[in-house]
Amino acid sequence: MTGAVKGRRIDWGGIFLYLFLTLFGLLMLAPLVYMISTAFKPTSELFLFPPRFFVNNPTLVNFRDLLLITGTTSVPFSRFIFNSLLVSSCIVGFGILISAMAAYPLAKHNMPFRGAIFNMIVLAIMFSPMVVQIPQYLLISKIGLVNTYWAMILPYLAAPVGMFLMTQFLRQIPDALLEAARIDGASEWKVFWVVIMPMLKPAISTFALFSFISAWNDPYPAMVYTTDQDMKSLPLAIQTISGGYGVVARVGTLAAASLLMIIPTIIVFVVTQRMVLQTMAHSGLKE
């Protein structure tokens, strides 16, 4: 009887923990909610005092002004979106392929100096990207890739984080599974595409999420490697909007542009979150 009473005891510690995490999560979402609300606010609500968190009369005028502002230039706003989508997609797609192809021999083949190569990859993670910006620009300029999409893609394809993540994940895959495929007559290319790549999905999704967010939000490549306006990216266009127009445009139009910019990252996160959690769950497992 005493045990049954204890079994029905309320777990106040667990309730407090869930309430605390819920409140903390809502606080983290507050800036996103405020940005969405501001994007739909009319001009009359943008400068109210005291300011209102939620919009009372939602409108699409800020999105219209965004198109009108960018329409006065020689480059439409849709061009900036296309440039960012193209560059980010290529960085993610080619980066996944290169990282997976580099991680496979490092994790599953007795290649010479693989320990030293892996240590160099770990060492590269420790360096700030700013360290190699000048050599990268000189190399891109010397080979004549300035004002091309390749100038914004090639420097970011060799991703040490992706190679490290996939190498560590591949080390958890039993060697017997690969040997069974080879015994059945599969070549190394077939083992890579049919066995390795499907099992790498959690690591690929994790790297794709981080890589896309980094590439999508980075204005540096378009700022340094391009001079033509039609090659500029969306983050650089948003910086132009925030600094080159009036106060009203900087508030309402910037919020609308920021909302359009954050939508793809939310979509990528929603698509990859389940695989990302699987990567975290398997990170501590051993063969």
TrEMBL record:
Topology relative to the membrane: Multi-pass membrane protein
CDD domains in the record: TM_PBP2
One Pfam family per UniProt: BPD_transp_1
InterPro entries referenced in this protein's UniProt entry, alphabetically: MetI-like, MetI-like_sf
Span of domain ABC transmembrane type-1: 81-272
Top-level taxon in the UniProt lineage: Bacteria
Subcellular location: Cell membrane
Stretches that traverse the bilayer: 12-36, 80-104, 116-137, 149-170, 191-216, 251-271
Main subcellular localisation: membrane
PANTHER family, per the entry: ABC TRANSPORTER PERMEASE PROTEIN MG189-RELATED-RELATED, BINDING-PROTEIN-DEPENDENT TRANSPORT SYSTEMS INNER MEMBRANE COMPONENT
Similarity comment: family membership: Belongs to the binding-protein-dependent transport system permease family.
Protein name (database record): ABC-type glycerol-3-phosphate transport system permease component
